[in-house]
Amino acid sequence: MITPMTKYSFVLLNGEQNGLLEKIQEVGLVDITRSSKPMDDNSHALAGEIDLLDGLIQGIRKAEVPEGTQPVVFQGEGADDIVRLAGGTLMLFAESQDKVKTLEKQVRDLKVWGSFDSAIVSKLAEAGVPMHFHIVSPKSFQETWAQEYALSVISRNKDGVYFVVAGEDALPGEVSVPKEDWRELEARLRGETAALKDLEGEIVTLKERLPELEQMRAQAYAKLDLYLAGTTAVPAAEDTIVTLVGYSPAENSEAVEAALDATGSYYLKEAAVVEDNPPIKLKNNWFVRQFEVLTDMYGRPGYDGFDPTPFISVFFLLFFAFCMGDCGYGLILVIIGLLLKKVDSFKDMAPLVVILGIGTTVIGFLFHTFFSLDISTWSIFAPIKGIFLPAKIAGYDGPMVLSIVVGIIHLCLAMCVKTYEQTKNKGFVNSLGTWGWTLLIVGGVIVGSLALVGVLDKELTKWIVIVLGVLSALGIFVFNDMKRNKLANVGMGLWDTYNTATGLLGDVLSYLRLYALGLAGSMLGMAFNNIGQMVLGDGSNAVLWIPFVLIVVIGHTLNIAMAALGAFVHPLRLNFLEFFKNSGYEATGRNFNPLSK
pTM higher than 0.90 for the full model? Predict the structure, then answer.
C-alpha cells in the first residue's frame, strides 16, 4: 500500500536552514524536495571526493594478493593518510605487476638462447662475422642446413627450434639480435618481485582499512545530500526569509515534530495531496516486500494511484512457477537462494529466489514433474495421485487450459482494480464507462463459469446476460462521458468496442506463453534424460555411468539457466503490459528518499 504523507513547510531566517537540515538529517525521516541540483564549486568538490573514494574502494577490492601475505604498517594512521597513500600504492602496485609480467616474458624469451655476451656479438659483426638469430617451427627446420651454413642449434621445444648462423645467411625465421643476457634480466626481475611483495603487503593493509574508506564515502554522500537539500531553499522577503518543503510518513509525525520543535523552527503541517507530488513510500508485509524491486523496475505509482506490488507478488510467483514447471528445478532454486544469503552483494535478493523456488516446487509437484520425469507413475505417490493436475482438461492439455484460465482471472482482476481506482478518484458518475466494460467482461466471465458448472440454469443465465448487456451498453455507449454529447458518446463507445475486442483477445492469448515456456523446458529436459539413457544403456557397464551423469547434470544445468531467464522475463511482461494496461496503472511517482546520515 502507499503510505500517507505529511507535508512540512518551513519558514526560517536566511542562514538558519543549515542547522535545521542537520537536525532533519539526524532524524532520517523527512524527504526534502530537491527542485534543483546546482553543480557549483562546493558540490563539484564533494562529488569529486565521492568519485575519488569510490575509485579507491573499487581498486582495493579488485587488487588480488597471494594468501598469507602479511600486512605492512603505513606511516600515518589518520583517514586522510590512508586516502593519500592508497592512491599512490594502487598506482605503484599496478605498475609493478606490469613490470613483473613483462620481465618474466622477456626472461622466458631470452632463456632459450642461453648465456652470451652481447659485446662479443657486436665485435664479431665488426670483424665481418655477423651472428644471425633464427626461430623456426620444428617441422620447418632441416638438419641439412648445418652442412651448408655455420649453424649452431641453441635449444629446441614444442614451439620451435632456436639456432644461430655465423657469417653468410639466407635462412628463414631470422629475428633481431638479443640486446641483453637473460641472467641480467632475471636479476632485475628478482628486484621487481621483491618490490611487488612489499606492495602486496600494503594492499593487505588497505583491505583491512576499507571500512574507514567506506565510512568516509558515506559521510561525503551525506554532506552532498545535505548541501543539495539546502540549495532547494526558496528565498523570500528580500532574501531575509527562506522556505523549505519536506515530506514524512504520517505514521512518523510524532517523532518528526518532536525533533522539529526542539530546533525552535517555525513550520506548517498539513496532509500531502496529489498536487504536491509527494514522494512515494510503499508499506507491505514481508512476503510482498520482496517483490517491490519488480515494481521499482517499472516505476512507483502516483500518490492517488495504487500499489501493484501485492498483485505482482501473487501472479509473478505463479507465472514464474508455471514457466519453470518442475519441482526438481524449484528445489535447486531454493538451494541457490540459501547460498546467496552468504554473498553480500546478492543477499538482498536471496529471499526472493527462495520464494520463487518454493513456488516452483509446489507447482512442479502439481504438474507431477521432477527433472522432466513424470512422478505420477511412481508407486510412492500412488496414494496422492488425485492431487496431480490431469493431463487433459475438456480434451485439451491441462497446463494450456490452466494458463488461459489464470490469464482470464488476471485480466478480470486488473479491470476490477481499474474500476475501483477510477470510482475512488473520479466518482461513480464519471466512471460509468469503465463500469460498463467491467460488468460486461468480468460479469460475463463469472456468469459463464457458473453456467458451465451447472450452478445457473439456462433460463436464469439468459436473463442475467440480458440485464448485464443492457447495463453495460448504457455505460459504454451512452454514459461513458457525462459532459459529452450523447451521439459523440455512441461513436466513442464503438471505437472503444473495437479496441477492446481486438486487444483483449490478444491479451488473453499472451498467457499461452506460460504453457509454451513450461512445455519447452520440460521437453528439453526430457531430451537430455533420453540422451543420457541412450549412452547408459542397461546400466551394466559401470564406466558408462560417468558420461550419463555428465550429460544429465550439464544438460539440466543449462536448461535451468535458460528456463529461469524466460520465467523471469515473460511473467514480468504479463504484469507490466497486460495487467498494468487493463488496470490503468501509471508509474508517475518518485521514491521516498529521506535526508539521513
Answer: no
